[in-house]
Amino acid sequence: MALDSLVEDEVRMKFVSGSKEKAQNSFNFFQRSRNAILGAADAVLRAAAKGTFGDDNRRTEALLATANGMIWTGCANGLLVQWDGNGNRLQDFQYHSFAVQSLCTIGSRIWVGYISGTVQVLDLNGNLLGQWVAHNSPVIDLAVGAGYVFTLANHGGIRGWSITSPGPLDNIFRSQLAGKEFLYTRLENLKILAGTWNVAQGRAPDSLISWLGSAAGDVDIIVVGLQEVEMGAGFLAVSAAKETMGLEGSSAGQWWLDMIGRTLDEGSTFSRVGSRQLAGLLISVWVRNNIRGHVGDVDVAAVPCGLGRAIGNKGAVGLRMRVYGRVMCFVNCHFAAHLEAVNRRNADFDHVYRTMIFSRPSNILNGAAAGVSSAVQMLRSTSVRINPAEGVPELSEADMVVFLGDFNYRLDGISYDEARDFVSQRCFDWLRERDQLRAEMRAGNVFQGMREAVIRFPPTYKFEKHQPGLAGYDSGEKKRIPAWCDRILYRDSRSASVSTCSLDCPVVSSILQYEACMDVTDSDHKPVRCIFSVEVARVDESVRRQEFGEIIRSNEKIKRLLEELAKVPEAIVSTNNIILQNQDTSILRITNKCKKDKAIYEIICEGLSTIKEDGQASDHRPRGGFGFPCWLEVNPAAGIIEPDHIAEISIRHEEYQTLEEFVDGVPQNFWCEDARDKEVMLVVKVRGSCTTEAKCHRIRVRYSITGKLTPMNRKGNNPNPAPANLLHRSDIQRLGSCDVVDHLRHLHSP
């Protein structure tokens, strides 16, 4: 009976010829394994269809209502969506591929904070006005106050940005600072060792010394990618099920991590900063202890490419991190097997490149990287065609990307014997012309924009285990043609090979060594390693701040603009007295009389009072941090008014439900504000673009409930006496902080 070729290709089950009974048992085992994998794939796909993890990148992360009545949402894939007040989806905007973490609005502008640390400013129509890197950590919250928008980073850092950013001064500062870039630019030199090995389910601790230990002496970062750490139908099914629940790893994977750590002298010399396993794929990154403080924001990702894009026997695992403030991504891949499956291998790469989404936190390290990128991460030049509906691939925005793994590309148009002869004569130039990967890259079908060093080592597949030398190539019945299946490719920040390292081209790499460890015989693949010399440009923030201050002090044009922007624009408020009844809405108009400067306004509640029976208001009590009382809605309470324009603010009484308490027989709400007529004093603070000074306009807002009876103004006897737990006014004491301390001291005195 012929076996299903697709399943044979995916599972790579190996049969040993024997007796008829053995063959039947092998076939039954294959059938059970096939059913287990198909069942797991079906469960994974059903979970994805329900949104367990398949639509996770479209998850809403932030929500915002703007002054024009629209609703904005930010998604985990960086998508911004505009909705109307009825919940109708109006427009989608995609300006960044990283997850949205926070949103805020001020006047006619929307501020967006991303997990990458980037901040963007949009207008109410969704047009991008500006963007920059605010932090080297996710921007988890945004707040407006005193003429600034404050950004809160995941590591606890807070920075303030002018509410008018991007503004007229930005281009001047940018131009002036660019001229002094050489003063605050620092170049850091690193060595990165990247290694890939298909271990064929074996365990070979001694071979790690030959592969990694012998080359780790003077490198700073070590990236290890393993394939086929563990396989088998049962393991693949369990692994797929674990992935749906957010679980990963295996005992075999942990064994390899422990052995690599022992080889690299983990703890005293190197530290593992992150790892990720998907079925038989495992990636781990190790950093020398003396640069660990410059490495952070470690994220991991996994993309299955096996049966139904759900099983992890083929696919990729990735790790992303910041090194000296620059983003580096490392991706360990295992693509479709067999000589004729070129298109499937190309499709596997395309699927990994487009869909790999990194998620925080990593399982080891998520500290903040030292230094902050001085420029917004831009989409790197590549010929990969991107569907705008899918968003920009995260891998495309990294400063450096390294792909390593068992890509499974073979040699075309050559026989087994011919290949063996060319290998024995070390005629690698002719063999390279037969390399499928080289041909597909030339045609622009795969690994677009990436580079590989010249291959000067023999093909690394397929060998008989424990057979030394080139005589170990497959001599069995199938006689698989030798091939360079195991490869390491990379891309840095350069758009041309002559680019030098600078803040505009922050990562430049060259290859010092690209070789296979032919003496290792524990697998049918040979391990491959590549050593990169990497130059990283970073900003010395202390010097940059000094130069920034010098520009402000010495540049006359900037000083003149700052003086003009520091002036508080003349503003007129339409009224200073508002009376509300029922749910009436009153419109307060603020007019910016200035012809060229924007006015920034903010409305706060200075205090509130209640109206006594004789119509007199009690003294205004400060509201402290409570903001507006529950019965009053002011919208928008802050904003930007363009020159010679008018802002309209809606002020209305808001109905609300309260738990009724009683003080002196009068029903109270949970703020302890009674149900009689109420009055608040609103303060409209108007500022200029670059000043904290403000002109204040006070507005008295009174809410009248004329016609509604309360226990205080009813005639005759009160048919509903106050409850027994009535709190009388005489029992209330107003205590300052010193009084509270004195009371506490007396409680403990003998």
From TrEMBL:
GO molecular function, one term: metal ion binding
Gene3D superfamilies: Endonuclease/exonuclease/phosphatase, YVTN repeat-like/Quinoprotein amine dehydrogenase
Requisite cofactors: Mg(2+)
Entry's transmembrane regions: none
Source superkingdom: Eukaryota
Keyword Ubl conjugation part of the UniProt annotation: yes
Residue ranges of every copy of the Inositol polyphosphate-related phosphatase domain listed in the record: 188-540
Gene Ontology biological process: phosphatidylinositol dephosphorylation; pollen germination
CDD domains in UniProt: INPP5c (cd09074)
Keywords assigned by UniProt, alphabetized: Hydrolase, Isopeptide bond, Magnesium, Metal-binding, Repeat, Ubl conjugation, WD repeat
A Pfam family of this chain: Ig-like_IP5PC_F
Similarity remark: Belongs to the inositol polyphosphate 5-phosphatase family.
The name this protein goes by in its record: Type II inositol polyphosphate 5-phosphatase 15
